[in-house]
Amino acid sequence: MRRLWTLEEFPFHPERLNHCETLFTIGNGYLATRGTFEEGYTGELSTTMVHGIFNHAKGVLVPELVNSPNWLPIHLTIDGTPFRLINQNVTTLNPTGGAVLGYRRTLDLYTGVLTREVLFRAESGSIVRLVFERFACLHDDHLMAQHVQIVAVDGTPVIEVDSFIDHRVSNNEAQHWTDVAVGGAGPRTQVITRTNQSGYTLGMAAHLIAPGAINTVMENGVALSRTHFTLQLQESADLYKYTTIFTSRDLADPTQIGGALHQKLDEAVAEGFSHLQSRHEREWAHYWDTSDVQIEGDEASQFAVRFTMYHILISAPRHDDDVSIGAKTLSGLGYKGHVFWDTELFILPPLTLTQPKLARNLLMYRYHRLAGARHKAQANGYEGAMFPWESTDTGEETTPQWSDVQPDGSRIRIWTGDSEQHICTDVAYGVLQYWRWTGDDEFLIKYGAEIVLDTAVFWGSRVEEKNDRYEISQQIGPDEYHENIDNSVFTNRMVVWHLSEALKLMEWLKSHASTDAKRLTDALHLTPERLAKWQDIIQRMYIPFDLEKQIHIQFPGFFDMEFIPVPHYEPRTLSVQAILGHSRSIQTQVIKQADVVMLMALLGEELASMPVLLNNFNTYFPRTDHGSSLSPAIHAWVAARLGLADIAIDMFEHAGSIDLNDNKGNVRDGIHGAACGGTYQALVFGICGLKLDANGELTADPQLPSHWKSVSFNVNHRGQKKHFRFTNPA
Amino acid sequence: MRRLWTLEEFPFHPERLNHCETLFTIGNGYLATRGTFEEGYTGELSTTMVHGIFNHAKGVLVPELVNSPNWLPIHLTIDGTPFRLINQNVTTLNPTGGAVLGYRRTLDLYTGVLTREVLFRAESGSIVRLVFERFACLHDDHLMAQHVQIVAVDGTPVIEVDSFIDHRVSNNEAQHWTDVAVGGAGPRTQVITRTNQSGYTLGMAAHLIAPGAINTVMENGVALSRTHFTLQLQESADLYKYTTIFTSRDLADPTQIGGALHQKLDEAVAEGFSHLQSRHEREWAHYWDTSDVQIEGDEASQFAVRFTMYHILISAPRHDDDVSIGAKTLSGLGYKGHVFWDTELFILPPLTLTQPKLARNLLMYRYHRLAGARHKAQANGYEGAMFPWESTDTGEETTPQWSDVQPDGSRIRIWTGDSEQHICTDVAYGVLQYWRWTGDDEFLIKYGAEIVLDTAVFWGSRVEEKNDRYEISQQIGPDEYHENIDNSVFTNRMVVWHLSEALKLMEWLKSHASTDAKRLTDALHLTPERLAKWQDIIQRMYIPFDLEKQIHIQFPGFFDMEFIPVPHYEPRTLSVQAILGHSRSIQTQVIKQADVVMLMALLGEELASMPVLLNNFNTYFPRTDHGSSLSPAIHAWVAARLGLADIAIDMFEHAGSIDLNDNKGNVRDGIHGAACGGTYQALVFGICGLKLDANGELTADPQLPSHWKSVSFNVNHRGQKKHFRFTNPA
C-alpha cells in the first residue's frame, strides 16, 4: 500500500456501507462511479454520474443529473453459492449462503485504482480468494476497466460468471431513461437508451474475457455475458471486463454511438488490462505532479489534502467546457448534481492554481450559460446577467422552491433561488482570480470579461437608491439561517468590489484589447452613464458597520436577536440550528457558516485594518455553528491570516475530515466538494499566506502549525510551474 | 488535546462499547478500572481489578482475579430525566427519556486522565453540558478522584445527584464477595467486604462534594450520597468525588481498614482536586520521562508505542513485589487475571529497560512463589521448581483442565497446564535479562539465582535419556496448535540455553558471592554430579534440525503434515485454524505463533548462522497464522534483524494495533498485555537492534523503516539512563 496515499476499509463495515461507497468513488472527469460492489448489496446506493446528462423526470420538482446504467455487475457463484458479502466471520465449514472470511478494500489515490480482496467460503466448503480491481481510464474518458482474480484456496470450485450492464437504475425511484435497447453476442453486451425529457442518448458496451467460452443470455431484459469453469486446488483464473461509453453529447449523430462503443472496445481488448492500467496511471502521475501537496509532520492532514484533491480531480471535466462540478461532485445524488457558488469560490481555486486548463473548462461552463443568466435577470425585472443559484445544463434557475416533505407533512419554502444573489459576484470572482493567476488574457478578453461585466450590469440595475445611499434588500448571504434580510454586508460589500473590478477591467480592456472593449461596450450597453452609476454605487453603497465596536455588521438588526453561546453546545455532531429547532434558531445570532468571515477571506486587508478584522473574527466565530461544510475551511484560512494558530489548525482538520469522518451522517449523498476545495485554500491561501501582490507577483507569509515540519506544493503562475516549500524552524 | 498522546472517541459508538471500555481503562499499578460510565450503560462490562485479590468461587473451575466494587457511579437527573447515553442525535425538543446531542471521550496517555464531554437534553428541554474527569492517583495507590462539571446551556435545570460505591458486582455472574458492610453519613459512604473463599478484606470509602447539602440515603442495600440544586441559565456547578481503597493485603489488621479509608479521604478533601491532579500528573511525567519512545515519520506507530506502554505502566505494581501482571493486564476478565509466560517474555522487558524497579517487583512475585513451583515439580515426580503455566496468588498451577462449554455442549481438554513447561525457562530468561541490563547483583544473589538454578534442577530431572541422547516428550511449544508433541525444538533448545546459563551463573556466584553460592549449592543440592549432568544434557540434547535444508524443525514429524499456504487466506480477521476447523488444522502445518521464530528472537545469532536463521524465517513465516496476539511483534523483531524491512514494519504495525483496531473482536476481555510489551521489544530489540554484547555493553544496529525519520528513547543500563536517537538518512 502506498503510504499516506491509500484509503483502506478493513474488515467490511456494513454499517458504513453508503458512507464508504462515496469515499471509494472512482472517476475520470467524464463520469464517476460510487464504490458499490460488483455483486451488489442490499441497501447500496449505486450511481454512475456522467457530466452533463441532466433530465427533468415526472414528479420531480427540478431537473437532476441522471444516474446512468451501472457498468459494474460481475456476479460470481462458487460451487453454486452466489458470492455475496454475507455471514462475515462465520466459521461454519458449510455455511448456508456462503460466508465472508475476510475483506479489505483499498483506493490508491495516486493511481485512482480501487481494489477489493475477499476471502469467501461457499456452501460446498470451497474457499476462494477474490481480488477485484477497477478504474475509470484517465487517459480515455470513454473507457472503464475491471479485473477479477479468483484463487481456489481450498477445494476445486466450479465458478459461474454473469457479467452485465444494468440499465434498471433510477434516481431515488425517479425514472429518467426510456427507449432502452439491449443486445449482445458472445462476450459483448450493450445498452443504448435515452433520457425521457431532455433526450440525451447514452450507450454503454462491455466485453468480458474469461477462461471459459462466453455466451450472451437474455434474462429479465438484461443481456448477460455468461461463462463457467472449474479451478483446481491453488489454481487461479482472471476475468477482465472493459466497458465503453458514449453519449449524444460526444457524438453529433447518436446513431454513431454503437459503432464508437465497439471500436473502442476492440482497441481495449487488443491493448489488454496491464497496458491500459499503465497508461491510466501515467496520466494520474501527470496530474499529481502539479496538484499534490506534501505536509510533513501531520499525517492526518497529509492524507486529507490528498483525499480532497483526488475528489476534485476525478470530478473536474478535462475535455468538456460545457459542464461543471456540482456541490456533491459526481459522487452521489445529493443536490441533484446542481452547480452552486461552491464551484467558483471553493472547488475552482485549487484547479486555477494547479490545473488551469480544467479551471478554464469550469468557467467556460458559466460563459456558455450567459443566456440563461440574462433570462433570469430579465424575468426578475433586472438588466445584465443574473446567474441562477442552482445551475444545470440549461442555465436556467433550477433551485427548487419547496423542500422535500418534512416529517410533519409540510414543505418548507426555499428562498435561495430568489434571494441568494451573491452567486453573480462569486462567478465574477472566479473569473478574475483565474485570470490573475494564469495570465490567460485570451480567455478574459473573449469570454471572462463578458461574465464580469454583464453581472456588473445586473448589480447596477439591482441596487436600490434610498435613504441617501444604495441598499440591497431581500438577500440571503452565505449565512443561510437568516433569509431575505436587507443589506447583507457580504453582498453589499462584494457588489462594491465587483463594480470596482468591472471598472478596472474596462480600463484594462481599452488599453489591451480595444476592439473587444468596443465590442463589449456595444453589446452590453456600457454607456458612460452606466459606468458613472457604478462609480456612484461604489461610493455610496451602505456597508453596515458599528463604528463604536469597530466591526462589520452581518446585517442591520443582527445583534438585536437572541445571543446563543455556541461554544457551550460542544461536543456535538448536530448543528446548533438542529438543536434549537428551526423556528427559534432563525431568531438568534447563530450563524450557519462564514459570512462576514467569508468576506474577510475573499478581500483580506482590502476589507479593513487588522484590528477590525480581528474584531470581526472574535465576534462572529463564537456565533457560528458550522452547519454548512463550507464553513470550517474559510475559518481556518482567516484564522491563519490573523495569527490565530490554534483555531486555524483545528478548523483545518475539521474541514479536511468532513467526508472521511462523516460526523454529520450525510456523506452517503456524496462528497462535499466545497469542503475539498476549501481545504486546499485554507492551506495555500490561509496557512501559507500565498497571494498575488498588486503587481501580480507571488508572495507568501507562512504560518505553519507548530507541529508541522514543512509544506510543499506547486502552483502554476502565468504559465510557469512554481515550487514552494515552507518549513517550521526546527 | 495533547497531540499523538490522546485516545479519542467522537461521537459515541455504542457498537464499540466494550472495546472502548478496555481501551479507556485507567489505573495506577495497584488497581485498574475499565472506561465504563458514571451513569452505567446496558451491556457494559464494568470492572475494577485490584492486584492480588484472587478468589475461588463456587462453580468456577479455577481461582480468578476478583471484580471489586465499582467506585464510579455518579447518577444525575436533569429536571427529573435520568442522564443516560440514549437517543443520540435525536433533535426532538422534548425527547422522551432525554437525548444525547453530543459526546467526546478522550484519554490523555501522558497524564492518565480520562475525560468525557456530553451535551444532553432533558425531557423538559433543558440542555446541560457535562464534563466528567477521572484518574486513579499515580502518586497514591489508594486514592481515586472524579470531577463532574455541569453547565446549564439552555433552561434552568434542577440537578439531582446520587453518588455511591456499587458492591453488587460479579465476575460474569460468579459471586466472590461476602459479609458486605455498607454505611454512610452526610457526604461519605463506605463498603467493607471479604472474598468468600480466599478471605481478603477490601474496603472502599467515598466522599462527595457538591453545591447542595448532601445526605446519605440507603436504597436496595446501597448507601447513596444524595443532593440536588438548581442552575440558572449559563451557570455551572462542580461535583467532586474522592474514593479511597485498602485491603487486608495492605494492612495486617483488617479492622484498621475503616480508619485508613477515612484518614486518606480527609487528606484528599483537604488537598482538593486540582492539587491532587497536579501531583498525579507530575508522577506520570516522571514515568514517561524514561518510558516514552518517540518515532518521527509514522504517527500511527508513534501513538501505538505510547498506547501500549501506557497499558503496561497502569498495570505494573509499583509498591508491591508479591503480585504480577496477568495476560489481560488489569483491564478485563479475560484469562481470569492469571499470570502466564506473557509476563516474563513480553511485558517484563520494557520495564526491565525503562522502569527496573517495577521489573524487579514482577520477578519477586515469581521468587515468592518458588514453593508453589516446587510443589508442582514434586507432584509431577520431578525435582526443583516447575512454575505453573497459569499462576495466581497461591503459586499453584491454576490452568483449567477443561475449556468452557463449547457450542456443541462439549468441553475441550486444555493441556497447557500439563505440557507447556517452557514457562520454567521463560521465567529464568526474565531474571537473567533483568540482571544483565540493570546490573542488580543484589537481586540476583538473593533471589534471582535461586529461580534460575532451581528451574534448572527441574529440567535436569525432566529430560529423558533415550536414543543415545536427551529428549523431552509431551510438550507444547509456543505454537499451541500442536499439543503434546515430542522434542519441541523451542523447548529443547531453550533448556540447553537454560542449563548453560545456570552453569555460568554458578561460576559467577562462586567468584562474586561465594557464601551465597554455598548457600544455594546446599539448599538446592547442586552437587558436582548434578552439574555434570547439566553439562551432559547441554552436549547431548536432541535439537531437531534438517541438515539438508539447513533449518530447525519445529518438532519431528511437523513437515509430514498437510501444508496449507497461509498467505492465500488473506485478507482475514479469523485465524486459519478457525477457518479450517480445529480437527483439521491440528493435522496441518499451520502454526499459531512464533515458535522457531520465537527461539530466534530470544537467542539471535547464538542459535545459528544468518543463512540458517533466514531459512527458518522463510520456512515458518508463511505457515504462521498469528492466531495469537503474541506472534506479530516477535516476527517484526526477527524480520528486522534479518533485514526483511517490509515484513518487519508490517508485523510491527499489526502488533501495535491489536487492541486499538480489535480486528479479532476480543478486546472486550481486556488489553493484550503481551502484544503491548512485544511492540516495545520489536522496536527496541528488533528495529533498533539494541542489545548487550558479551561484555554487557550496549550496542545497536538500527534498521529503521524507510519512511521513519527517527526513533528516540531512553533505557536504563546498569543504573544509568542512556539516551538513544536513531535517524534514517535524509
What is this structure, in a nutshell?
Chain A is 35% helix and 22% strand.
Description of the structure:
The structure is a homodimer of 730-residue chains. Chain A is of the alpha+beta class. Among the domains of chain A are: 2-287, Beta-galactosidase, Chain A, domain 5 (Distorted Sandwich); 369-543, Glycosyltransferase, CATH 1.50.10.10. In chain A, strands 1-8-9-10-11-18-15-14-13 form a nine-stranded antiparallel sheet. In chain A, strand 24 (691-692) and strand 25 form a beta hairpin. Chain A is globular. Chain A starts with 5 loop residues before the first strand and ends with a strand. The mean pLDDT of chain A is 97. The interface between A and B is large, with 37 and 37 residues.
List keywords for this structure.
homodimer, 730 residues, alpha+beta, Beta-galactosidase, Chain A, domain 5, Glycosyltransferase, 9-stranded antiparallel β-sheet, 5-stranded antiparallel β-sheet, 35% helix, globular
